[in-house]
Write a structure and sequence with these properties.
This protein is 9% helix and 55% strand. The strands form 2 sheets. Strands 6-5-4-3-11-10-9-8-7 form a 9-stranded antiparallel beta sheet, with no helix packed on it. A two-stranded antiparallel ribbon has the order 1-2. It has one domain (17-129): Lipocalin (Beta Barrel). The chain has one helix spanning 2-13, and strands at 19-22, 29-32, 38-42, 47-52, 57-64, 71-75, 77-82, 85-91, 97-103, 108-115, 118-129. It has 1 helix and 11 strands. By secondary structure, it is mainly beta.
């Protein structure tokens, strides 16, 4: 039943990769895509810049923390959970699995790192960088 609902929603909404943000002052919804945008992910001790190069390729660079100056392009998958929240997932070259829930309304990111059989949850804030 749930699978049917998800498929139905995807068919009804068209492109599930866009975010829809409702402006209270407008009578219609505004669709915002993360493609082409850069965000700062701040986890406290570690800070990353994440640039969404396309609908399935992102580039991340560590600008503060243990991985400082490390950067990679990643093939990622995403799914829109609601008007302002995305679920993102990718596997890095070293085998690290990354799954994220990004909430653009609350400017928050909840990340789960998977290393072998261990799952490490970390939370942080995000903000769009105007470049």
């Amino acid at each position: 039943m749930m699978l049917t609902t998800i498929i139905s929603c995807k068919k009804h909404n068209g492109n599930e990769n866009n975010l829809t943000v409702v402006d209270k002052n407008m009578s219609q919804e505004t669709v915002i895509s993360v493609t082409g945008k850069t965000f700062e992910y701040n986890y406290g001790d570690s800070v990353y810049e994440v640039h969404f190069k396309s609908e399935n390729i992102l580039h991340w660079k560590c600008i503060k923390g243990e991985e400082k100056d490390r950067e990679e392009d990643e093939n990622y998958s995403k799914q829109r959970l609601n008007n302002y929240t995305l679920f993102l997932s990718w596997i890095e070259k070293d085998g690290l699995g990354v799954s994220q829930v990004v909430n653009l309304k609350k400017n928050s990111v909840n990340t789960f790192l998977t290393i072998q059989k261990e799952i490490i949850p970390i939370s942080g804030t995000i903000r769009e960088l105007k470049k």
